[in-house]
C-alpha cells in the first residue's frame, strides 16, 4: 500500500504544471541526460577518489575558505569521522550535541555505536546552544556541534553574533567546533555572511550535495590539511573509498553551478510563500518569517485528510501544494515541511492563499460527504 501511495504521489508531482513545495521528480533517463550535459566528451571517470572527486573537493574548499575538503559518499559517514577526530586530538570522548540534532535523530547515533563516543546535551530548547550553555557544561567535551539550521526544531538559526560567541566559548574551553552544515548554503542569507566566513568559525564543516543543490548523493567535510588527511584515512576504513563515484560527483558539481547561485532567491521567496500560508484558516507557520528556504506549516486537520486532498488536487488540477503531512502532538493538527525552490518562484502570496483555500475546501467537502 505504501508503495502504491508513493507511486501515485510521484506520478502526480511529475504531471503538475505548478509546484509550491519541492521539485518535480526526475526519471533515471532524465538524470542521466543531465549528467551527460555536464560531462565533456573527453571526461574520464574517477578512480578511487582522483580526477572528478579531487576537482569537487577543491571547489568546496574554495567555497568554504578552508585549506582542504574531503568527499564522502554519505553525510553520516562524514560526521562520524569529524567527531572521532575531535575525540582523538583533544583526548575527550564526550561530544556536545543537541538532542534534536541529526546525529541523534537521523543517524542512529552512529557516532556512539560505531565510534564509541558519548553525548552531552547543552540544551533541550528548540535551538542551537548558546555561549552560556556551553560554558555551563559540567564536563569537558572534545567537540561542540552546531547544526545550521537545526532542522528538527523547524529549520531555525541563531543570529551571527550569537553563533560567533558560542563558537568562541567552545574553543576557549578546549573543544573543537563542528558545523553540521548539510543546509549551510541556505543559512548564509539569514546569518548575513558568506559560506567561507561561516565556516571560518568552525574547525570542521560538513556540507551536503543532495540537500538543496539537487545532487544524487554525497557530502564533504572541510578543514585543515591535518584533518583532511585523517578524514581520508578513516573514509577508507569506513568503506567510503569507492572505486568510482562520478555520477554523484558530476551532479554535485552541476548543483554548485546551477542551484547554489539561486539559493538566496529561494530564501527571500520563502517569506512570500510563508506570508500567504499564514493567512489560511488556523494555519501556523514556523519560524515566521522563515530563516531559510524551508520551514514548517501546521493546519488544523488530520494528516490523512491533508495528504488525500493534496494528492487529489495534484491529480485533478495539476497543482502540487505540499506533501508529507504528519500528525503532531497537537490534537487534530498536522504538520508539513515546506521547501521553496525553483518551481515556487512563480507563486505570489495571493496564489499561495488561493490554492491553500481550494485544498481546504476539498477536506471540508469530504468531511461533509
UniProtKB/TrEMBL annotation:
<dbReference type="GO" id="GO:0005829">
    <property type="term" value="C:cytosol"/>
</dbReference>
<dbReference type="InterPro" id="IPR015424">
    <property type="entry name" value="PyrdxlP-dep_Trfase"/>
</dbReference>
<keyword id="KW-0663">Pyridoxal phosphate</keyword>
<dbReference type="GO" id="GO:0008732">
    <property type="term" value="F:L-allo-threonine aldolase activity"/>
</dbReference>
<feature type="domain" description="Aromatic amino acid beta-eliminating lyase/threonine aldolase">
    <location>
        <begin position="47"/>
        <end position="289"/>
    </location>
</feature>
<dbReference type="InterPro" id="IPR015422">
    <property type="entry name" value="PyrdxlP-dep_Trfase_small"/>
</dbReference>
<dbReference type="InterPro" id="IPR015421">
    <property type="entry name" value="PyrdxlP-dep_Trfase_major"/>
</dbReference>
<dbReference type="GO" id="GO:0006545">
    <property type="term" value="P:glycine biosynthetic process"/>
</dbReference>
<dbReference type="Pfam" id="PF01212">
    <property type="entry name" value="Beta_elim_lyase"/>
</dbReference>
<comment type="similarity">
    <text>Belongs to the threonine aldolase family.</text>
</comment>
<dbReference type="InterPro" id="IPR001597">
    <property type="entry name" value="ArAA_b-elim_lyase/Thr_aldolase"/>
</dbReference>
<dbReference type="GO" id="GO:0006567">
    <property type="term" value="P:L-threonine catabolic process"/>
</dbReference>
<protein>
    <submittedName>
        <fullName>Threonine aldolase</fullName>
    </submittedName>
</protein>
